[in-house]
Amino acid sequence: MVATRQLPIPKMTARRFGARCLPALTDDALYERTGVRIAFTGREGGVSEGPYAALNLGNHVGDDAEAVERNRALVLEALDAADVPLVVPSQVHGDEVVELDDASPKALAAARDAARAGADALVAHVANVAALLCFADCVPVIVVSPTGRFAVAHAGWRGVENGVAAKAVRALARADSAELGPDAAGAYNVYVGPHIHASCFETGADVRKRFEDRFGSSCIPDERHVDLLEALTIGLEEAGVDRARVADAGACTVCSSDEYFSYRASGGTCGRHGAVAFRKVR
Length: 282
What we know:
It is a single chain. By secondary structure, the protein is of the alpha+beta class. It has one domain (about 15-270): CNF1/YfiH-like putative cysteine hydrolases (4-Layer Sandwich). It contains 8 helices and 12 strands. It has helices at about 30-35, 65-80, 105-115, 155-160, 165-180, 205-215, 230-240, 265, and strands spanning about 15, 20-25, 35-40, 85, 95-100, 120-125, 130-135, 140-145, 150-155, 190, 245-250, 275-280. Helix 3 (about 105-115) links the parallel strand 5 and strand 6 (about 120-125). This is Laccase domain-containing protein. GO terms for molecular function: copper ion binding; hydrolase activity; S-methyl-5-thioadenosine phosphorylase activity. Keywords: Hydrolase, Metal-binding, Transferase, Zinc. InterPro entries: Cu_polyphenol_OxRdtase, Cu_polyphenol_OxRdtase_sf, Cytotoxic_necrot_fac-like_cat.
């Protein structure tokens, strides 16, 4: 598949993948245009049990390690990417971005080492590598360029505040500048997966003030809550992204904790759903 210079307006739909009919949110028009497959998974379709049931993709939450590895394999199999190497960062609520610009085994190993050391975004400049980041209320972000480059970012409230997704966008834009020009980010599609929405994200006054000082009053809907999506979008606009190309899944993890993992709704013990992206070239 060859990328064109303009992407379809981002739109996510729910569909089922593979023999196990694993459900995920995706954008098929994007895939047809660029070869980049994005997917936001939910709870259904895996082998984990108890509070991690069933498709837990996080290996740091107390679940059986073999079950987590099986769940990750099931996702890649369902997405027709069983043979695509996977990079899974150890998320630390920071702003570290790992970039992968070479698909060689040595470069892949180095990227995995850097990701395991602690990172909250992965930028892939090459095909045949998959990124997986894990969530349970934090904001999942996938950014896709017309060139086929992509980024996946994990933005909790600290990640939204410190601009990790915008930092990933700037890394993409630097790499794309030769092909797309200095305003490359304006052509990107941004997909925001299920996360805690403003109506459920109640915070202390100190956090609200930090967000209002940084992003303005539009991300403070009332005296108790913060709108992470609005703050994230403002930060992305500062990095050159067109607001019209930011698509939200429209699902609150707290309100829909039967479909998605929610740290708040579960009281702190739960699995993690995922944001996955790759560009497969045979």
